[in-house]
Amino acid sequence: MLHKKGFLLCTITGLLITSACSQEQKTYAGKNNEVATAEWTDQELGEVTATTQSVEDKVTILEQEVADLLNSSEQPIEQPVFNDVQTDYWAFGEIMKLYNEGIISGYPDEQLFKPENTITRAQAAKMIVIALDLPLSETPSIFHDVESGNWAEQLIMTAYEHGLIDGNNGSFMPNEPMQRKHMAVALQKGFSLQPLDVGFTEYVDVKNDNSDSDIYEAVKIVTQHGIATGSAGYFKPDEPTKRSQFSAFLVRALEKN
Predict the structure, then answer these.
(1) H/E run at residue 157
(2) 176-208 burial, b if ≥16 CB within 10 A, otherwise e?
(3) Whole-prediction pTM value?
(4) Which has more confidence, 12 or 238?
């Protein structure tokens, strides 16, 4: 492919130069009986210089076009790996990025990602711990619903010890949905996102009071950074987060680093 493109560039360049030379020869052929005065010589030199410059400009443009073509041909075309996440899916790029970086694997036996399913608290802990490349905790589970040997034990304890996802009364509720408010806290703390000096329109359903001060601040910050936003003035903090949504939020947070 490279040889063909190089041959094409050389051929076109040669044709342009040949054309310029032919034009120059015709000019001199028509002037062969004239006296080569200084004025005439300057005029002819100007015409030749202009023609040469035009050819060089065209060659430069052609070289750039061929370079762009080569670069585009070297870019791999992303192919779907999940049957339920095709190239036209809204979060295809984000999901594929996390897959390629080993942050997610989906359900390989079924070749599915199940993007519209809610993400569980254990799954969210796994994704954010791997994305942040945190060293895994060696502390045994302190949660009565996360038994020793559980597939997510170390991941959950890592997320807990870094203050990303808390438990409640000795329970972690690993199989419960990850609520949007807890997603905001995990991403804001995990990526150390700070408030921005920009305007913020408060959400109707996220109050700035003592009981939810951490949640309010996290929701505000992830909104300011464009990681997660609400709709029509509502953030819907208690609603579950979809697997596709969490993937998109996580990629946006990663891009802030």
Answers:
(1) helix 153-161
(2) ebbbbbbbbbbbbbbbebeeeeeeeeebeebee
(3) 0.70
(4) 238
